[in-house]
Amino acid sequence: MPTLATVALVLVGGAALVACHGPRPAPVLRKQTYTYKTVGDCEIKADVYSLPGATPRPGILFIHGGALIFGNRGSVREHQLERYLDSGFVVIAIDYRLAPETKLPEIIADLSDAYAWARAEGPRLCNLEPDRLAVVGDSAGGYLALMAGLLSPRPKALVSFYGFGELTGDWTRRPDAHYLGLDPIGAKDARSAVGNRVISESPTFPRAIFYNYCRQNALWLWEVAALDPDLDPLRLRLLSPARNVTKEYPPTMLLHGDRDSDVPFAQSAGMAQALAEAGVPHRLLRMEGYDHLFDVFPEGWPSDTQPGELEDGTVIAAYDEVIAFLDQYVGSSS
C-alpha cells in the first residue's frame, strides 16, 4: 500500500487551493493516489482527499469532464474540493479510460469498478462510510455521474454540472454551430492528436483538437461509443440515463448554464423532466446567462483569463446549494 502523504496545501491542476470566504489557514489535507484498476499496461488511478481524524465520513466520488476524450482526476475544482472537505466529506477523484481508444461501454465499466472500489476500500483508506457515497461530475463527468444512478447499490445522491442525459438528438447527430465557428480541422490533424494506446489521463491539448473535429463533423458519438443513432437505438437507450430513470433513481441535482455552447441546456432540462415523471427528488439550477464551464470561467468560455469561480457570487451561491443538497440527502460530518 502506498505511503500516506500529508500536505499543508494541495495543488490541484497546478493551482493552489485557497479559501473562499477570506484569508484563513489552509486546512491540513491528506491526498493519496491509488490504482483502483489495471487494464493491460494502463493503470487507472484515484486521488483520495481527506482531513485528519478517525471519524467515519460520507464521501463524494468525483468524475472529471473532457468529452470522454481528455482530462484527468486532477481537474477537480479547487473551490469545490475545499467546500466538500470543509463540509465533512471525503473526496475520491477518479480517472477512467479515454475515447476514442476505449469506447463508452468500457468507460462505464471503469465507473462501475471505481464505485465498487471506493465502497470496498474507502472505509480502510479514508474512513469512508460506503452507504453515504454521492457521485458528482462535470460535463462528460456529469453524464457519468448520471449513469452512476443506475449502479447497484445506488449512490445516495448525484450532482451533475452541465452534463447530459441523452445521447441521441440533434446535438450529437449534426455538426455543431459553435464548433463550426472555430477554425476547421482536417481529419489528419485530428487523428494525430490521439493514438492507439489505451490511456486513462491526459492534458486538454492536443486531444481537444480531436473533439473539436468530431463536433464539426457530427462524429463524436461514433468515436466515443462506436454507435450509429439510426442503427443502434436500443443500445444508445441503455447508455442514456434519462431513458432509464425509475423511482429507485437517487436524488439528483442538475446545474447548467442556459447559454451553454457545448452541451445544450435542454439536456439537463430533459433529465429533470424524466426525474419528475418518475417521482425522484431533484433540483435543476438554471444558471441564467452562463455558458459551459461556468464554474471555471463565469464570464464566458472559452477564455484566456484565469479561472474566476472564487470571485463570482452567483457561482459561489450555486456551490452553497450543492452543499445543502448533499447535506439533505447524504448528510455530513462537519
What does this structure look like?
The protein has 334 residues and is of the alpha/beta class. It has one domain: 3-Layer(aba) Sandwich (Rossmann fold). It is 32% helix and 20% strand. A 9-stranded mixed β-sheet has the order 1-4-5-7-6-8-9-10-11, with helices on both faces.
Mean pLDDT: 90
Domain unit count: 1
Q: What's the level 1 CATH class?
A: Alpha Beta
Q: Per DSSP, what share of the residues sits in E-state strands of 2 or more residues?
A: 15-25%
Quaternary state of this entry equals single chain
The CATH architecture designation is: 3-Layer(aba) Sandwich
The helix fraction, in percent, is: 25-40%
Give the strand line-up of the largest sheet: 1-4-5-7-6-8-9-10-11
At the third CATH level, what is the topology name? Answer: Rossmann fold
| DSSP strand tally | 11
Please identify which CATH superfamily we are dealing with: Alpha/Beta hydrolase fold, catalytic domain
- For the terminal residues, how far apart are their CA atoms? 28 Å
Secondary-structure content class: alpha/beta
Identify low-pLDDT runs. 1-21
Output the helix-strand order. EEEEEEHEHEHEHHHHHHEHEH
**Can you summarize the main beta sheet?**
9 strands, mixed
Q: Radius of gyration in whole Å, from Cα?
A: 19 Å
Instruction: Please count the helical segments.
Output: 11
Shape: globular
